[in-house]
Amino acid sequence: MPMTMVVTRDVEARYRGFLTSVMLEVAPGVYVAPDLSAGVRQRVWAVLSDWYETLGRGAIVMVWRDPAATGSLGMEMLGTPPKEIVDADGILLVKRK
Questions:
Q1: Cα separations (Å) of 9 from 15, 58, 66?
Q2: Which is it for strands 59-65 and 4-9: parallel, antiparallel or unpaired?
Q3: Which has more confidence, 31 or 90?
Q4: Which structural domains are found in the chain, ordered by start?
Q5: Distances in Å between the alpha carbon of 65 and those of 3, 11, 24?
Q6: Does residue 89 carry a pLDDT above 70?
Q7: Crossing angle, helix 13-20 and helix 38-55, to 10 degrees?
Q8: Quick one: CA dihedral 44, 82, 69, 63, positive or negative?
């Protein structure tokens, strides 16, 4: 069960209430869970995705350790992030837009 982190930006208060019910808010808009299972992570993402489709405001990023993914980092995003994550020969890099 890998560490999971969710970062929110400019979203409604309901996200904060929901995320703090399953994760620890370590800074404004930054939530972590050291042992979130894959099933719980997928259900949390499903709720966030459903709300985002309805509300359509802000941005949300979820990251977790995934040995099968590029850079061993699994990642899901909703909204327009201020930077783009690109794969450069198996290494993840941040590209400014």
A1: 10, 5, 24
A2: antiparallel
A3: 31
A4: 4-96 (3.30.70.240)
A5: 7, 25, 18
A6: yes
A7: 170
A8: negative
